[in-house]
Write a structure and sequence with these properties.
single chain; about 240 residues; alpha+beta; Beta-Lactamase; 5-stranded mixed β-sheet; 9 helices; 7 strands; about 55% helix
């Protein structure tokens, strides 16, 4: 019986302590400026530190503010890196647009595009495949023009239907079609559909680095490049 009374006493004491703490919390919420009016409390209030010691409230606040400042500086540096990268990509797109505008024929467009991807975007491999039904054209420009009815193109059916640029790992069939004997050394791929009213073809970019073109990358820039190239090709292919 005595033990039961002791347990009840302990329980009652804990409930009273909880009630007191809740009352204090409520009072602090209603008097948020109390530390401004009584700054001496900052010196006597203590918080447990991760190292096991105790620090004053003002020391803890300084530590928190310092940590927040470091996070903000880190975030600012990241944003600056993004801004610089966006500026670099914008300049690349601008130069490419000017060069495409001055291109004389389809071969000139292809040469400009491949050079841009290899020198400016660090693609280890870059290829362009243009769709055609002209058997003579396909034979004369083997590797560039491909049969639009080729069954191998079913490997790209989904991205062509949705006209979406895709980055990341690709199937063995896709890599073999785009890069032939270089396919085995390629670890990451970006595929850009060329669309101007109808599907004109594909641009394939390959990298030996598995993270160069990954699924988490934004594809807006590559899609915009695809639109520029498609518009330029459409003009020359119609001639």
């Amino acid at each position: 019986m005595k033990q039961e009374l002791n347990n009840e006493d302990i329980s009652t004491e804990q409930e009273q302590q909880l009630a007191t703490e809740l009352q204090l919390v409520s009072m602090l919420r209603e008097n948020a400026d109390i530390l401004n009016r009584h700054p001496e409390l900052l010196k006597v209030l203590e918080l447990a530190h991760q190292s096991g010691g105790a620090v004053s409230l003002i020391e803890r606040q300084v530590a928190i503010l310092r940590s927040q400042l470091q996070e903000q500086e880190k975030r600012m540096l990241e944003l600056m890196d993004v801004a610089r990268d966006n500026e670099r990509l914008s300049k690349i797109r601008h130069r490419l647009a000017i060069e495409l505008f001055s291109s004389h024929d389809t071969d000139d467009v292809i040469s400009t595009v491949l050079d841009t991807f290899k020198t400016e975007l660090s693609a280890d491999h870059a290829v362009v495949k243009l769709f055609s039904k002209d058997k003579e054209q396909i034979e004369q420009s083997a590797g560039l023009f491909v049969d639009v009815d080729d069954e191998a193109l079913t490997a790209f059916k989904t991205m062509l239907q949705h006209k979406n640029t895709v980055c990341g790992r690709s199937t063995d069939e896709q890599k073999a079609y785009l890069f032939a004997d270089k396919a085995e050394e390629i670890k990451s791929v970006a595929v850009i559909p060329l669309v101007a009213g109808a599907n004109l073809g594909l641009i394939g970019l390959g990298a030996n680095d598995a993270m160069r073109f990954n699924s988490s990358m934004g594809t807006d820039f590559l899609s915009h490049i695809g639109e520029l190239v498609s518009a330029s090709l459409a003009v020359h292919l119609e001639q």
